[in-house]
TrEMBL record:
Residues 22-41 are annotated as: Disordered. NCBIfam families: copper ion binding protein. Residues 32-41 have a biased composition (Polar residues). The keyword Ion transport applies. This is HMA domain-containing protein.
Length: 445
């Protein structure tokens, strides 16, 4: 927050605000409501607080950044509502500049409260640092790996643009790079790269102001081997569980669940799949357990249940295998799948035509196992232990709901359609006029 005297507002480029006020006071000798001359964007100043209410040497002036304005109606709405708040003397909103100049009484209201007044109206208000206008703006290029679509680009741009010290950001999906303009006194390129990594991407600083700093960044990484090693050891102690989550409809639901679970004690990592309606959670078994995680997600409004629970650094999958005829087929599958890197155990049952495989999810996955079995000449697919637990993947419950809704509507709508068509045909053929159909039972209805 920047607080300064009334005369310092000249440095903001709004001389008409105070000059017009002073000339009006000199000519009329009062402090009635004053309107500044309208500019091209029709912004205005409302000064309707008399001097006895506190306008004087104790007046503070701040410049507030306002996002979300689209027209002059937004400008008038902000000006008319904010000026009514206690301690507000005047406000001048600039639509094109997306900011407002506010005169207020620091003893009555604070700059943060002024921003809250504007936020409550549906706009986004913030207090940009006044001195940042004179600061040197640096540029950096950050290499970003892991982006797959424009949604990733928009996610990074939207998140980083809100960070303190960031003036602008442009992410190139094809080049896998981000171009950021920032204030060096408020944020560093390394901090920006870390913030992008916190979003689930791999990022490192490529250059700053056109100068490659790869060597400097490598040295910084070399000084942290013990930290990364400790983190790797810590990850090995974590256990993993898969959770089935109902009720997710969009990316906002996914983001809400991920943010909520990451705040739970003992939960270190969560990956939510919207289409599969499931989540993979890495947690510290000494602090929490899958039942607590499921209960917390359910309390959030998304019914959840545990699908699978694995030990530290391993996962398990059951497959339905068709085409086996003898023990030789079993041995062939077990020996070939066992050669896949990351496979810890492979057991196949000929009688049930099923196979159970334990593996390291960091090295391989069910898809690789299934492809290996198919290359051997057998047919393999995922098997659900409860027989119906995979129904959600085929949206069977959703299909049943809409099917019931259709049949219910058809039961009542079908007869109505038939009656309507009958009378329409009768009227078209001329056997009955519209007046003859004024009532169902003459004299009654």
């Amino acid at each position: 927050m920047f607080l300064f005297g009334k005369n310092t507002s000249d440095t903001l480029g709004f001389e008409p605000l105070l000059n017009h006020q002073k000339s009006h006071e000199n000519e009329h000798g009062d402090h009635s409501t004053t309107y500044a001359p309208q500019s091209g964007d029709y912004t205005r100043t409302l000064i309707d607080r008399p001097e006895e209410n506190g306008v004087g040497d104790g007046t503070g002036t701040i410049k507030v950044k306002i996002d979300g304005m689209t027209c002059q109606s937004c400008v008038r709405s902000i000006e008319e509502n904010v000026v009514k708040q206690p301690g507000i003397y005047s406000i001048k909103v600039n639509l094109e500049g997306k900011h407002g100049i506010v005169q207020y009484d620091p003893k009555t209201v604070t700059a943060d409260q002024i921003c809250e007044y504007i936020d409550d109206m549906g706009f986004e208000a913030s207090l940009p640092m006044l001195s940042s206008d004179n600061q040197e703006i640096n540029k950096c290029v950050i290499d970003i790996k892991g982006m797959t679509c424009n949604s990733c680009v928009q996610s990074i741009e939207g998140m980083i643009s809100t960070k303190v010290g960031v003036k602008s950001i442009k992410v190139d999906l094809n080049k896998a790079e981000g171009y950021i303009e920032f204030l060096p006194n408020e944020v560093t390129p390394e901090e920006l790269a870390e913030q992008i990594e916190d979003m689930g991407f791999e990022a490192y600083v490529k250059s700053v102001n056109g100068k490659n700093i790869a060597n400097g960044y490598v040295e910084k990484n070399k000084s942290q081997p013990s930290t990364s090693g400790a983190k790797a050891d810590e990850d090995l102690k974590l256990e993993k569980c898969n959770i089935h989550i109902k009720g997710m409809t969009c990316g906002s639901c996914v983001a809400a669940i991920e943010k909520h679970v990451q705040k739970l004690p003992g939960c270190r990592k969560i990956l939510v799949s919207l289409l599969a309606a499931r989540a993979e959670v890495h947690y510290d078994a000494s602090i929490t357990n899958p039942a607590n995680i499921v209960a917390s997600v359910t309390d959030l409004g998304f019914p959840a249940s545990v699908l699978q629970q694995s030990g530290a650094g391993e996962a398990e999958v059951d497959l339905q295998i068709r085409g086996m005829t003898c023990a030789s087929c079993v041995n062939k599958i077990e020996s070939n799948v066992g050669k896949i890197p990351g496979i810890k155990d492979a057991k196949v049952a000929l009688t049930t035509q099923r196979g159970k495989f334990r593996f390291d999810p960091e090295l391989t996955g069910p898809r690789h196992i299934i492809e290996t079995i198919k290359r051997l000449g057998f047919d393999a697919e995922l098997f659900s232990r409860d027989g119906g637990g995979g129904d959600y993947l085929q949206q069977k419950e959703e299909i049943r709901k809409w099917k019931r809704s259709f049949l219910f509507s058809l039961a009542f709508g079908g007869p109505c359609m038939a009656v309507m068509l009958y009378f329409m045909i009768v009227m078209t053929a001329g056997h009955m006029s519209h007046e003859d159909m004024c009532c169902i039972v003459p004299g009654e209805i």
